[in-house]
Design brief:
single chain, six-stranded mixed beta sheet, about 30% helix, Hypothetical Protein, Haloacid Dehalogenase-like Hydrolase, Chain: A, domain 2, 14 strands
Length: about 260
């Protein structure tokens, strides 16, 4: 890896985390010992979940959450990109045409979902959303929060099959596969890459001096947003095609750390 790197963005699932959702044993130590490099956690997960996941080093990190809809460093919101109420309502109408297990309205303050006893959905909700609130009427969330993203959970890993059927969303919105069980819907201007580019500009870090790691389709723009992009060995073929590098090892083989140890 380029020794001049000043900032690195890491996707979580399938990249930094192994299949058991565990961090590499030496990642926290690496962050603490490389304070000259800004470390960015770039994830579809909620900000509050990411902060809780990294309690020990939260002050050393920048959180690029909700696939780039919200960027926070310390207590400072560096960027947010919220959906209009009208777009949320129209999107829900379209989503409800498809067989799905649950819808989450991802707000700045919390995540909102229809009260349910579906344990599979609830387990996945709690994994990714530390702040969450059940509602009797999902649209009531629009009166108490700004909505950054709509996350739709599909059981039996049916997200990719359903992705092509979401054809009537408002034209100013975009859909993204965020793993094999999730589809995210947000403003078309939201993606990890555009948020990472804005962060580079904010911190006066050049394209060449920024790096990233990712594995799935929601990391596609991230791969294009910096000079040293790494697709994981286990990455989706589309992501491998656009990345500058492919790691020699998978996320279950400490693929990220093998590269970081060269710095």
């Amino acid at each position: 890896m380029n020794s001049n790197i000043r900032m690195i963005a890491f996707d979580m699932d399938g990249t930094l985390l192994d299949s058991q959702k565990r961090l590499p044993s030496d990642f926290i130590g690496w962050v603490k010992s490389h304070t000259n490099i800004r470390t960015v956690i770039a994830s579809g997960r909620q900000y509050y979940t990411l902060k809780k996941d990294f309690t020990e080093i939260a002050d050393n990190l920048i959180f690029l959450a909700e696939n780039g809809a919200l960027v926070i460093s310390g207590d400072t919101v560096l960027y947010k990109n919220v959906m209009t109420k009208e777009d949320v309502i129209r999107s829900l109408e379209e989503i409800n045409r498809l067989p799905h297990s649950g819808i989450i309205l991802c707000g700045v303050k919390s995540a909102y979902y229809l009260d349910t006893t579906d344990q599979e959905f609830l387990i996945n909700l709690r994994m990714y959303y530390d702040h969450h609130k059940p509602l009797k009427d999902l649209l009531s969330a629009l009166d108490e929060d700004e909505i950054l993203k709509i996350a739709v959970y599909f059981s039996e890993k049916r997200a990719e099959a359903c992705y092509t059927k979401l054809t009537q969303l408002p034209s100013n919105l975009a859909k993204a596969l965020s793993g094999d069980s999730w589809i995210d819907i947000s403003n078309a201007t939201v993606n990890k890459g555009s948020a990472y580019t804005a962060l580079q500009e904010r911190l006066s870090i050049s394209f060449e001096d920024a790096a990233c790691f990712g594995d799935y389709i929601n990391d596609y723009e991230l791969m294009q947003s910096c000079g040293e992009s790494y697709a994981m060995k286990n990455a989706h073929p589309t992501v491998k095609d656009v990345a500058k590098h492919v790691t020699a090892y998978t996320n279950d083989e400490d693929g990220v750390m093998h590269e970081l140890r060269t710095l």
